[in-house]
Amino acid sequence: TTHEFLFGALAELVDNARDASATKLNIYTVKDASVRGGYLLCFLDDGEGMDANEAADIITFGRSSKKSLDSQLIGMYGNGLKSGSMRIGNDLMVFTKKGAQMSCVFLSRTFHELEDIDEHALEMELILRYSPFKTEAAFMQEFEHMDSTSGTLVIIYNMKLLDSGEPELDHKTNRFDILLSNPEGRDFDTDEGLMPERRSFRAYASILYVDPRMRIYIQGKKVRTKRLANCLYKPRIYKYSSSRFKTRSESEARKSQDEARNAENRAKEAEEQSEAELRRMQQLAVELRKDVQLKKQLAERKVKSLREPKTLNFIFGVNINNRNQDGMFVYNCSRLIKMYQKVGPQADGGVFCSGVVGVVDVPYLVLEPTHNKQDFADAKEYRHLQKAMGEHMHNKASQSSGPLHNRSVPLHNRSVPLHNRSGPLHNSPHYNLSACSSAEQKTNFPDGILKKEVKTHEQKEKDLEQEIRKKQEQLEKIQVRKTLK
């Protein structure tokens, strides 16, 4: 498994529930002294569930039915459930039902280590021996947790432990949350310590998606999910277009062209079959010809897209609640990939752009995430994106001015103290967005305009000299630290 950030492993299981069209996900722990760590970690959703064949595909790495270029589903590789769960614990059980079918998948590292067997039939005797359920009745009772006609229950146990013997995930300190027991020093974002999203899974789950549409419960308490862009003061949206994001498009164009050629070859083979199967093969040939046309059209569209600039929406605003919690939140197909990324003036240090938060949702066609969904595969093009985000952030901070008037900000854009939740809301200019009885509306952010500063040749040379001087000072500080050590 490649999940260095433990919450990233948990998020893989949340992604699966979202991709299964679940409307509700309940994450909870169950005490069990018989397993390592002393508890079971459970993920129960009301999604589409799986039949026996779909459940069997779980065991195969790299097998995914969600692979599609135009798909908005998060899972693309078919590895998330296995890699995520095996990062958290040694053993996994998946209970799932779809219609009248009920299935169970059992993945056990403990079994393989003890029995030293690579392949074995999935028998009830083994499940009862190596799972927390010691009777068939207790095993079947797990399906009763699914109230709807379909759904999935994932149970992870024999949790990974720290050197101290304590589980990596702390479910005791806060009875309504799951915390990191001992976060690593490199995860510290500021002098004050960890950002809440790096310490608390409840905080991380609240911003995991650009467009949250699934109710998530942790230890029985509902997570208050947030549309991050809607939580900022004076947000602005910038249209950013670039023709430099070609790597992903070129790869998909080549793939589509190969698929079109393969479909063409299959169609020709079908047309050349013997007369005995002529009628059946003719029908198959017609279907394959349709497939050829679709793939050719897709390939042509992708080749054409190489010449078209890719447009992204950068949304910038100010985090007025915690000015020290700033940076870029980069999503891919609505799923959070990078958070608190310092770009532009923030990366240079200082107070300029302090408190400015940016949000961007990058399509799969523009940048491909890594398998663990914690970074992007093409580092060069991601650096180009960071540079563009830094320029737009500088522009946003330069243009922002004016005092904060609390009633000028819509209710969904601000935090309202409990003692101040009554009053003349109708006096607000955003009354239609402030009424809890109103249906949720898509927020239209004011447009921002990027105004690039035109520098003379002398100014550019001066800036370059300052940058070189700054790097030299940083290098000298590093050398002093090494000398002191």
From TrEMBL:
InterPro entries: HATPase_C_sf, Morc_S5. Residues 200-246, 293-393 form the Morc S5 domain. Keywords: Coiled coil, Metal-binding, Nucleus. It is found in: Nucleus. One of its GO terms (cellular component) is nucleus. GO terms for molecular function: metal ion binding. Residues 450-481 form a coiled coil. Residues 248-276 are annotated as: Disordered. It comes from the Eukaryota. Its main location: nucleus. This is Morc S5 domain-containing protein. It comes from Ridgeia piscesae. The lineage of its organism: Eukaryota, Metazoa, Spiralia, Lophotrochozoa, Annelida.
